[in-house]
Records
---
Amino acid sequence: MKIKRKMKKKKISKQLKIQKSEEAMIAGIIEGSPDAVGVAVVRLECDCRKMAAIDQEGEPASKLIIYRDSAESICDKCKKDDGAFSRVTEEFIHWVKNDINEADRKKILVKVFGSHTTH
Ligand SMILES: [Zn+2]
């Protein structure tokens, strides 16, 4: 039992580390994209991430970035399928500005992720 608990703890801290680097990445994208109202974040089951700044029309305001935490390159699966939708575990927009109303947020979400979005 002791071992099991230890392993679980390790997994949590790994997720926390990924979360932290994800936040740093988002901050970097925002800094480089003054027109951005938010950053679209797509989490993949393999722990790779796809991100792009989004402007108020829901158009990309930066290049699409795909990266893997503390790795030099993305995983082999992503190299092959470019982070296919079937492997997406989560997708959301990290909003930069808080003065966007709910209707506009929804419009941008649909535009960015399409109507397949679970949100
Ligand atoms: Zn991957």
Note: Residues 44, 46, 48, 74-75, 77-78 surround zinc ion (CB under 6 Å).
---
Amino acid sequence: MSKTIGIIGAGPAGICAARRCYEAGYKDIKVFEQASDLGGIWLYSPEINGYSSMYEKLNTNGPKEFMSYEGFPVPDRDGSGRSFISRQDVFEYVKEFAAPIRQFIWIYLLYKEEPGKPKLQLPSNVVQLREVIDADSEGLILNDGQKLNDIDAVIYCTGYRYNFPFFDDSIVRTLEGGKIVTPLFEHVVHRDYLDSLFFIGIPLYSIFALLEEYQVKFALSLIQNRAKLPSRDEIDNWETNRIKELKARNLSLKFFHAFKEPHEQWDYYKRLAQYADVIYAVPNVYIKIDLMNRKFFDERVCTFKRVIYKIVNDEEFTWHDSEMDDYD
Ligand SMILES: Cc1cc2nc3c(=O)[nH]c(=O)nc-3n(C[C@H](O)[C@H](O)[C@H](O)COP(=O)(O)OP(=O)(O)OC[C@H]3O[C@@H](n4cnc5c(N)ncnc54)[C@H](O)[C@@H]3O)c2cc1C
């Protein structure tokens, strides 16, 4: 496993990519993050930073029962059993998921220290660098002229704002006022760099941990050259077909990367598992809870987060309303 993996963005998607690549045997992993720490939007600061739309009292909009990385259930941190956990709990959870590999990967913080802000105390595998302004066939170029070479695969994990400052338009660009990232196959891989350029976390209306797990499984199968891909024509026509499909459903192109109907995200994970030639391991009970949660959202938007779900087995769950009312 001599490939070097470059991951841009250390939110839940970048962390998932880093951990799963590490577990798959890649030991040379470099993560580039513009903020002062890992965590993505869940690294909350009351200062408006122009990036995150997180707010202080946010509770998740999906229940923790299915918002977990594989084999790493979200803990009941305050013992309340609540399903819709706080942003702090998600932040802790994501950081705990990163903890086993944190000391084994390189973390490059592209964070600008400003007068008055405390200086970061960094361990030896965390390096503070200037921001990435460009990329070429050998690697990434920083704004002080430094070059970081020898990256074989780039995994782009920068959240929902589709903005690619270091890619020339001839490589990656956005269409429809930033709603479509092109040219991709299945929202995740660049169709001209099928073994080396990936975008984790683009689709909207999905459950972050599941989306990231299945996209990373697919990316890894491509890096390892064992994916079961459709024909070249199907890959090249995927975007055109997706646009035709949206038009046939009378949906605007702003839904290009969105799973509008509930079944779309589950079908998507199943397809990615097939391409990656791995087991699709989403239990039916997740789908049932998701449907119930959407129904409650429609029927009782102000109180749907009071519901506490309990998974009984892969098919069944129970639910009841909690007495607590501190949900946003
Ligand atoms: C308010 C809010 C509430 C949400 N609630 C839920 C929920 O309850 N359940 C759910 O499943 N999902 C929820 N989401 C979706 C959310 O996007 C995911 O939870 C998850 O954070 C996505 O992870 P990510 O790593 O793709 O993106 P992010 O969390 O956005 O992380 C992206 C990271 O990339 C870094 N980055 C960006 N650009 C660059 C660059 N050029 N160079 C270096 N680093 C860069 C950022 O600093 C950030 O750390 C919510 C989103 C929002 C905005």
Note: The chain has six helices and 15 strands.
